[in-house]
Design brief:
It is a single chain. The chain is an alpha/beta fold and 386 residues long. Helix content is 43%, strand content 11%. It has 17 helices and eleven strands. It has a seven-stranded mixed β-sheet with strand order 1-2-3-4-6-8-11, with helices on both faces. A four-stranded mixed β-sheet has the order 5-7-9-10. Helix 3 packs across helix 4 and helix 7 packs antiparallel against helix 14. The longest helix has 18 residues. The chain is globular, with a radius of gyration of 21 Å.
Length: 386
């Protein structure tokens, strides 16, 4: 569905952006994705603040044609992604609905198949944009929010940023391109974040390499204004980088929790193992308070998720982004065939008793055959277009 923006004159003042609604016929009165035009900038605004802008299939369907139209419009020089409200860019995908579908919902399991497929196609589309793309990682950024922001060459963290990939705790794995992006972080930091679901806050999001710039949240509107003035040039991306450099600051100690920086040597030493068993042995031998805490955390996660995640990142480190998404789609369907995803969603998000009963219950019981079954081809495999 293509559309065109009115001229700036029609929009009124520079800050008076015109908001366009892109809704499916079944959408609610309040659109879940808004878009605004200011100068040469187009902004996609995730608009479900009551649920921390969690991503659902309707939002994916709205964003894909929107972003495509912007990328093909010669008048658009910058694309920005942000979330409504002050709490989150996007706290994850609508996994509760996915779980209900996968457990024999009224849709015959269609959402459990289609959500991940459509989400990954959008994430890949964002990674292939020709137009400079900027993600405002203000507030919570988890799961589906990571998939929307990681493809951006410019990722802005603020003092309110909170990043995590906690999927092993719900019987899933760090998807949305995690196979490709996490291994590219320093040392074994990606493996540590993937297996433990550890959270990075504020300046640590930049220090970890997850974000590219740190800007105080009170300056984000000014950043957006400045980006809207970027003109077409021989190197528009460099012009965007120059604008962001003007606003980026060196975060203060108060903006950093040093959640990982003080432990990088230990992370590299313990999480370099060629198997989960090796990593667990490393943590046990280390015997520090920090290592013991990480070991205990991993033991609380889905044993199956932990083992498939380890293999996922080791394989993904040698794959293209397209290959990673294809692998991850197969993994999601493996999770839909097994027990732990549905149990994790029940325990963490539905009943909220926080006492999942994993099956298999221990790492030792997760066989190689179980792990391999998550990586086998599936009917209607994911296909991506350049």
């Amino acid at each position: 569905m293509a559309f065109r923006f009115p001229t700036q004159a029609a929009c009124g003042s520079r800050r008076a952006s015109v908001v366009f609604r892109h809704m499916m016929s079944t959408a609610s009165a309040e659109p879940s994705v808004l878009s605004s035009a200011t100068g040469s900038l187009r902004c996609a605004i995730l608009n479900r603040p009551k649920v921390l802008n969690s991503l659902n299939l309707e939002m994916v369907h709205q964003m894909r044609p929107m972003v495509q139209a912007w990328d093909e419009d010669s008048d658009v020089n910058v694309i920005v992604l942000k979330g409504a409200g002050e709490k989150a860019l996007c706290a994850g995908g609508d996994v509760v609905s996915v779980a209900k579908s996968g457990r024999g919902g009224d849709d015959g399991g269609a959402l459990a198949r289609d959500f991940f497929r459509e989400e990954y196609i959008l994430d890949y589309q964002l990674a292939k944009l020709k137009t400079p793309y900027v993600a405002f990682m203000d507030g919570i950024v988890m799961g589906g929010g990571v998939g929307l922001s990681f493809p951006a060459p410019f990722r802005i963290a603020t003092e309110r940023s909170l990043f995590a990939m906690p999927e092993t705790g719900i019987g899933l794995f760090p998807d949305v391109g995690g196979s490709f992006y996490l291994p590219k972080l320093e040392g074994e930091l990606g493996m540590y974040l993937a297996l433990t679901g550890a959270r990075l806050k504020g300046a640590d999001v930049v220090k970890a390499g997850v974000a590219t710039h740190f800007v105080p949240s009170e300056r984000l509107a000014d950043v957006e204004d400045a980006l809207a003035q970027v003109g077409k040039s021989a190197d528009t991306r460099a012009d965007v980088a120059a604008v962001l450099a003007e606003f980026a600051t060196s975060p203060s100690d108060a903006d950093s929790t040093s959640a990982f920086a003080n432990h990088m040597d230990e992370i590299n030493e313990c999480f370099h193992g060629d198997s989960v068993d090796h990593i667990m042995e490393n943590l046990e031998l280390s015997a520090t308070e920090w290592a013991t805490k990480q070991r205990d955390t991993i033991l609380r996660m889905s044993p199956t998720s932990v083992k498939i995640t380890h293999l996922q990142l080791r394989l993904g480190a040698k794959m293209s982004l397209e290959e990673c998404f294809k692998m991850e789609y197969r993994m999601t369907q493996g999770c839909m065939r097994s027990h732990d995803f549905f149990e994790g969603i029940r325990a963490l998000l539905i009943d909220k008793d926080k006492s999942p009963k994993w099956n298999p219950a221990t790492l030792a019981e997760v066989t190689g055959a179980i792990v391999d079954s998550h990586f086998t081809p599936v009917d209607n495999d994911l296909e991506l277009q350049e």
